[in-house]
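note to self — DONT lose this again. spent like an hour looking for the file last time. sequence + predicted structure for the chain T wanted, 178 res
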Amino acid sequence: MNTKGDLTDFIYAALFAALTAVLGFVSIPLPFSPVPVSGQSLGIMLAGSILTARQAVFSVLTFILIGTAGVPVFSGFAGGIGVVFGPRGGYYFGFLIGVVVIALVRGNKNNIWCLALANSIGGIIIVYLFGVLWLSFVTGMGVEKAFMAGALPFIPGDLFKVFVATIIGVAINKRLPQ
């Protein structure tokens, strides 16, 4: 057992869980959607861009479990099991799968185009897939209406987050030991 490596994994996971929570303080409610504009998807993209898949999963699991326990780490200072199983819950589960996809697509490469692709697939497509389907299921609105309320208005901002996460990820990965 590699205790030093395990400790490093947990420290990185805690750091990125905290970063994701802090980015949730940037939250703008939209009148036509139960899902607010939030900085949390940037935290997910950064975790997948910088951490190993294992560290990234620990990070998002920590974030979700702390929020589920009632600590207000979700966007808009929300917390509790009701948030996880409410209209926004699918996005949080999408974060978990999305961060793994980002880390796996990125692999050991630190190429700007590869990282941008990884962030687009994992940070937008996967998160929206889970989020929109869950939003449709929980609210009873059709998938098309859920897409219009829970994905379409967020695409420009999330493309900007892909750009930011990619630039930061490439810069940090250049300085981290492999």
